[in-house]
Design a protein that fits this description.
The complex is a heterodimer of chains A (135) and B (210). Chain A has 135 residues and is an all-alpha fold. Chain A has one domain. Helices cover 78% and strands 0% of the residues of chain A. In chain A, α3 packs antiparallel against α4 and α5 packs antiparallel against α7. Chain B is mainly α and 210 residues long. Chain B folds into two domains: 108 residues, no CATH class; 43 residues. Chain B contains eight helices and no strands. The radius of gyration of chain B is 22 Å and the shape is globular. Classes of the chains: A mainly alpha (135), B mainly alpha (210). Chains A and B meet through α1, α4, α5, α6 and α7 of A and α1, α2, α5, α6 and α7 of B.
Amino acid sequence: MRTVVFIAPTMIALLLAVGMLRESGLLNWIAEAVRPVAQKVGFPAELVPMGLLRPVSGSGASAILLGIYEDHGADSFLAKCASVVAGSTETTFYAVTMYYSAAGITKIRHTLFSALLADFTAIVLSVVTVSLLLP
Amino acid sequence: MAYVFGGMIALSFVFSLINGTAEGLSQGIMDSASGAVTLLISISGMLCMWSGFMRIMKDSGLIDKLSRLCAPILRRLYPDVDAESEAFRYISMNISANLLGLGNAATPLGLKAMQELKKQHPSEVASDSMLTFVLMNTASIQLLPTTVAALRKSYGSEHPFDILLCVWLTSAAALTAGLISAKLLSRRRKWRSSSRLSSRRCVSTGFLKG
């Protein structure tokens, strides 16, 4: 119980920041901005919002995942890629915040960079592995 | 960490002003604040339940067995954590729970592990072991992605588990990328701070003046 009280302020700050980020439309705007770049390198544009939202908000990412299932079918290429992303990543910001605040750590050094690099790797590789292994 | 939150909040504030979504923003603030409290209450329930379970597992000796199974790999990943320590035990329990897909059990164990790591490294700066541990928890390392498979099944997939190999490869590669980048970055920083120290030493001893 003491742990919960201890992590509460930081968790509330995180969820507030994430909620604001989503409501302000900034995430959508970034997704729109990245889309043409993604299309140029042959990366499916439908996965861009998934990749952006996944580290920030678990429920937001599942909403996108279900949207892809609905629009393209659960056995489509896109659905498989999105499922791999969902299965091989976590809600990075949430985990980082919770674990560090439980230990009273305020200087997290390069944790966020490495964690987001891992997420980025996962998103790129989801497309690569699915197109190689599940034609 | 305060900078990250501050940056996120400031960015969304500015953007909503430019974009004219300020009304939605204030609604979002209210919703996420109350959502945060609800979430914390459910976390506390979960923590209470699992710390009871952990007691049982500890007394029955199950934990020692699991830990011994993971120890050879984990000892490499956490060179500065004593394999007999409480911290190491919680780390291995957290990793085993994650592998089994018991996310709800893994979280309280992970929080304990972080608190034990903090005891060994009493500072507000994250240690290398803490970094490795958090990275292993931000990369999903579960053996069976049951949630995703269940969702796919409910949307009419014929082989919901056909993505299994892809998930394994992807998460292993992602975790490796994260851990390697963390290793490289912490090595670079150590080198930088030690070179700064030695140059300062040179200055203080008057070595550089000559």
